Amino acid sequence: MSPFLVAGAKIGRVFHLPQIRITTEAEKCICCKKCDKKCPMSISVCEEVKSNKIESFDCILCGECVDVCPKKVLKYSIKNRN
Ligand code: SF4
Ligand code: SF4
């Protein structure tokens, strides 16, 4: 896991720069919690899915949850942070 990726994500949030984030389609989620088990930051991804985006400041955008989801609920997006 690149330390630059982690630093870039955190700096982007502080300065409200457009950045990669993970958005979700909550209606597709079957609550299998495979994403929770795979997250290296111990984020309750399944709970975050319900708000249609991963908001946790602990998220390092590693993509493990995106890859493991059997229903393709999670995906990368580029958006301004509000
Ligand atoms: S892995 Fe996908 S389907 Fe399973 S709980 Fe997480 S978001 Fe929902
Ligand atoms: S991208 Fe990585 S750190 Fe962020 S919620 Fe998904 S698994 Fe956890």
Task: Describe this entry's structure for a reader.
The chain is an alpha+beta fold and 82 residues long. The chain has 4 helices and 2 strands. Strands 1-2 form a two-stranded antiparallel ribbon. The longest helix is centred in the first third of the chain and has 12 residues, at 3-14. The protein binds iron/sulfur cluster (SF4) (2 copies). One iron/sulfur cluster binds at residues 29-35, 45-46, 49, 68-69, 71, 73-74.
Break the fold down into its secondary structure elements and pairings.
Elements: H1 3-14, E1 19-24, H2 34-38, H3 45-49, H4 64-68, E2 74-79
Antiparallel strand pairs: 1-2
The chain binds iron/sulfur cluster (2 copies).
The site of one iron/sulfur cluster has 15 residues, from α2 and α3.
Descriptive keywords:
82 residues, alpha+beta, two-stranded antiparallel ribbon, 33% helix, binds iron/sulfur cluster
Short characterization:
The protein is α+β, with helices and mostly antiparallel strands.
H and E order: HEHHHE
Share in helix: 25-40%
Per DSSP, the total helix count is 4
The total of beta strands comes to 2
Structural class: alpha+beta
Report how far apart the termini are.
Answer: 26 Å
* Poorly predicted regions: none
Strand residues, percent: 5-15%
Backbone CA Rg: 12 Å
